[in-house]
Amino acid sequence: MTRSFIAIAHGNWQSAIDYHLFGPLLFFSSGLALIHSFFELLSGHTLQAFYLKWLTRRDLQLSVTIVFFGYYLLRITRLIPTDRL
To answer: Are 13 and 24 in contact (CB under 8 A)?
Structure first.
């Protein structure tokens, strides 16, 4: 994941995806969380955003966890080949 983040920072999207399929998604999610937190601290109020409702949905949390670990398991067992390890 770290290599994927570094590849994104260098603008190399294909390498980022090759390192980890969810790297770009997590990179931008982290950036969104950072920006959201910054504006909450700046305003002193809790901000309401459409994506905050998604974060509390138990079924969505479970689905994302299963997909993430499923992908990770496929990579470990080499069913999804990677030549960048």
So the answer is: yes
